[in-house]
What does this fold into?
Amino acid sequence: MFFNLDNTNKDSFMNTSLEITPLIGWHKSAGANLADFGGFNMPLWYETGVKNEHLAVLKSAGIFDTSHMACINVIGNDSFELINYCFTRNINTLKKGCCIYGAFLNTNGHCIDDAIVYKFSDDFFMICVNAGMGATIAHHLDANKASLDVCIEDLTKKVGKMDIQGINSARILSKVLQNPDIVFNKMPYFSFKGNFDESALGESMVKLLDGTPVLLSRSGYTGEFGFEIFINPDAIVKLWEDILIAGEEFKIIACGLGSRDSLRAGACLPLSHQDIGNWKFLNHPWDFALPYTEDKKSFTKKFIGADSLLSGSNDQFIYPFVGDSLRKVSTGNNTHAIDKNDDIIGKVLTCATDMGISWYKGNIVSINSKNLPRDLKIKGISCGFVIVSTKLEPGMTLTLKEGKRSINATIVTDIRPDRTARKKLNNFI
It folds into this structure.
């Protein structure tokens, strides 16, 4: 799934060949700027603009249409064995009602797609993948199941999905859920409750006020506190509108993929097929997605691509960076990463502007950082990822050059401080 605001097809409004989500009518009526994203006609931003949408999530709450993403059910006595072999993370300790991030690799150790695996039971898992990747990952699983007792079901177009992100997310959802106190009791980061398909598991413990069942996952793609919501596609428009009404007092707004991109960049989250892709799934900020042994010389399990990752050398390294201002450069082969010796050592994978951060006394602060001077204006900083041919250390500087345009960048281990995603839920009730 590719995302580059500079390269998206902004003429896709009239492109009838693109896939659509159930919310397309609402997006059009709200004046969304639509574009081709992963083969779907999706909103980049609304009349509020990317900056205001980005800041709304950091200050209060925003909602995102994510129905372009795909889900796959893996059911059967051997479902664990199949997923554990195909998926990079070791799911041996994954508990019922929890989910985990990782990737599916080919035999070369290259990323087919990243994903989140949800465990309903020992023999029932759901996998959420990126736009247009449902059939690909379903086929990948099927090709590797051999004689295993497992049923693989591609749920593309059978699931509606939306995300609510920001510190007021739970307060807003409390107005549209039955028994919110029970739902939000003991719900840590990367856990989930309920199910959108009651025929699969019986009655869902998470329901809307009208009785509609949903799967509520405490996760997201912004780095901030919030939830991902899975629901029958026929019911998502009503839920979307109900949440906007419920969140009026919190000034919730609809957000497009532009702010989703800038938020995830500032949170050091990768975009599949852009920041991870057709190269070895190594030497990047997301090494936690691999089942390393303690000495990081081998893995705790066998999985597709493991042998390739462990064999030979890999001279490609991915690092997060921050610029010295709002200024950005384009991504791709025409933008060079240049070291202090004026040598070209790589290229830019992602470059966005996190509008909620600024430099202050040599450190990055965010609008959620405590004890900031009242007169400090948070102006935003460009940030993203570079892929280079040499190992770099935090604090090292690069020049990112696109033709006559260039920006100064510093290699970092993290970008936006004081993110809220991992904080205890009771802080937000």
